[in-house]
Amino acid sequence: MTFHRAGAAGFTLVEMMIALVLLGLLSAVISTGFFLAIKSWEAVEHHQGVQNELVTVQKALRSTLSNMRAEFIRDIDGVRQIALFGDEQELIFLSPLKQIKRGGDLFWVRLATELNESQDQHQLIASYMPYVPLIDNTPNRKVSISSGNLDWAELRQQLIDEGSRVSIYRGDLTAFRFSYQDTSNKRIPEWESEWLKKENLPTLMRIQFGERSEAWPDLMIRPRVFSYDFTGSR
Questions:
Q1: Residue 132 and residue 11: Cα distance in Å, rounded?
Q2: C-alpha distance from residue 87 to each of 19, 23, 107, 210 (Å)
């Protein structure tokens, strides 16, 4: 005679398979949610990093460019002009660079992008050297850094070869460019790709960072010499 205990029956094979399938589905849902949460967190951190980088670069550029000085020089042809040489790719101007040295000392500053061949990246470089406002007959005096007749090409080369250098940004800047605007006249202002042999500073400058994986907005900078000029006239 065979005896069976009540309630001793176990799970059937079908029930076990259903339980395993449900457990697998639940694990998949949990792991997918965990993966999406990690990706979302990484995206937030990346976006925050990009924004911090953008703020740092814009702050450095705004501080340097907004403080440019409206000094006059004469070039090697004797043409009187404002001490600013600008095109789409580079900009040379006078600034006190208060973040480097306190006081009213002026520096020639060159902003331009350069290719770092070792990293295959373009970087935004600020080169600078002291501005010498006095002229003398010392043989070793470099004419291009005095207030005498200035050779822009020579000054540019001196800034590249001998100037102190600061890297403002390393990254994708292949389409980085400057443009300039003069709102001092009554006609509708247009953006210009060059600012050469002018008698005044541009009232507004625009910096475009080009096509990047993370789009950066254009940076607009108005020199402080126009801070209290709401009509655009000096």
A1: 94
A2: 71, 66, 19, 16
CA distance 213 to 53: 14
Q: How many angstroms separate the CA atoms of 76 and 67, rounded?
A: 26
Neighbours of 195 (CB within 10 A): 22
Q: What is the value of pTM for the model shown?
A: 0.69
Is 80 exceeded by the pLDDT of residue 11? no
> Rounded distance, CA 216 to CA 209, Å?
6
| Residue 194 vs residues 24, 110, 123, 131, 154: alpha-carbon distances, Å | 66, 15, 21, 23, 19
Mean pLDDT over 2-21 rounds to 68
If one counts every other C-beta atom within 10 angstroms of the C-beta of residue 205, the result is 25
